[in-house]
Amino acid sequence: MMPDASGMQALRGVKRKNYFVCAALLFGGFIAHGLSAGAFAPALVLAYGGWSASFLVIGVAVGAGWIAVKSAGMWSGPVSLVAATVLIHHTGGPLSPCFPMLSAIPFAIAIYTPDTRVPTVVACGGMLGAVMVLDVLAGLPPRELLAHGACFGLIGAIAIAGTRTYRSMRDAEKTAQQERLVALDQLSESERRRLKAERERAEVDRLVLVGQLAAGVAHEVNNPLAFVKSNLGFLERELRTEGGALDVGELRDVVAETQDGVLRIQQIVMDLRRFSREIDEGDAGQAEDAIHEARRLASVRLRGLGDVTLEIDAELPPVRLGQRHLVQVLLNLLVNAADAVEDAEPARRAAIAVRARKLEGGVRVEVEDNGPGIPQHVLARLFEPFFTTKPPGKGTGLGLALCREYVSRVEGSLRAENRSEGGARFVMWLPAAGEPVSASASAAA
Asked: Left (φ > 0), alpha (ψ -120 to 50) or beta: where does 423 sit?
């Protein structure tokens, strides 16, 4: 993968810095060499000065983009070989203390040009040529020429092999990095799809609940609507009566009853609209408000089945679960309780109780019914997605699974149990907003 513009600029900056550092080290070597020799010979000045200046020029050219980063090694290799050869020749030839410097040049080139082996191969060839030239100028016998050639040839082979190994390791790292990036992209896409599916699943469950309540809504609206119409008819008849005295007190009662009926219809419509509409989830929920709203919504399902009694502690703290999800969880529990009592044999009047208690670190909510209870084999699978004992068209098996998921997401708990006196009980624990869960772990149990 080719680096982008910013990455290439950063790479040029690193390469430029490396060449400047090398130039500084060469200049330092020149000073040290001159001080140790007691004089700065012209050849020494020429070799070190030219070498250091060349690296400065290459660094500037690479940083400015005048030459490609990969081409810099092709320039630095020959420059280093020529400068080192001149330096060694004027400081003793094969006997010079700088003679081993030739063996380091291919390794230095390999480090500075790891992406390609060509500069290293060229440097190895140049190193062998420089050794031969120095040996010939020094008048060494053929045997020593061959020995030097074999020794430096081995060093060059090691440099080439090292370059190849380094390139293989670097390519493997790049491939692994690419695979990690692809895996991260796939994970991100998977998480996006999961969240989308979760939202769709929650929407389906909420609309299923609205559908289950629809028949009851018609009944609940018809009741207040009937006496609203009756009262309006009464008012119309009274106003048409000629010469009759209107009873102001009775008229006020009729108007008050009519207003109550209209408000009841308005409340039902508002509750359903708020519940069925997708809204932003708040940071915290008010348990008492959610219980009252859920009971109003559930009343259209209960109709003549029975009553819902409430026992709510005063000043319950806000809980971590958002208001909409909190209402949805409570409504699910109330509707399930109504279904359980409706299917009970023998038939009985529903007695559903909701208790909310303020405990240390949170709120505990219990929903009880007087239905037949939950069979043990059902109790073990009650919160599994798509598991339901209801007939087709009456349940999706998502309601309780989503309830537990919402509660668990805020580090709360939801469990079901059978009451000793008959019926079922759902126990929900919700941490207070802003409270650490560890402080309330014992209360949750």
From this structure: left
Sequence spans of domains, the chain:
5-184, 202-444
What the block records as the tokens of 228 is: 């609203």
Question: Which stretch of DSSP H or E encloses residue 355?
Answer: strand 350-359
pLDDT digits (tens, 9 = 90+) for 346-363: 878 888 999 999 998 899
Return the pLDDT at 442.
Answer: 46
CA 353 to chain centre: 40
How many angstroms separate the CA atoms of 112 and 114, rounded?
6
Let me know: does 285 contact 326? Beta carbons within 8 Å. Answer: yes
Burial class (CB in 10 A: 0-12, 13-18, 19+), 291: buried
| Confidence (pTM) | 0.47
Q: Is 445 exposed, middle or buried (0-12, 13-18, 19+ CB in 10 A)?
A: exposed
Residue range 202-444 forms a domain whose CATH class is alpha beta
pLDDT one-digit tens code per residue, 22-39:
888 878 877 877 777 676
**Alpha-carbon dihedral sign for residues 108, 111, 115, 117:** positive
**pLDDT score at 280:** 47
Tens digits of residue pLDDT in 72-122: 766 777 777 788 788 777 777 888 777 887 787 787 777 767 667 777 788
- Which of 105, 110, 88 has its CA nearest to residue 97? 88
398 by DSSP, 3-state: which?
coil
Crossing angle (nearest 10°) for helices 42-64 and 72-89: 170
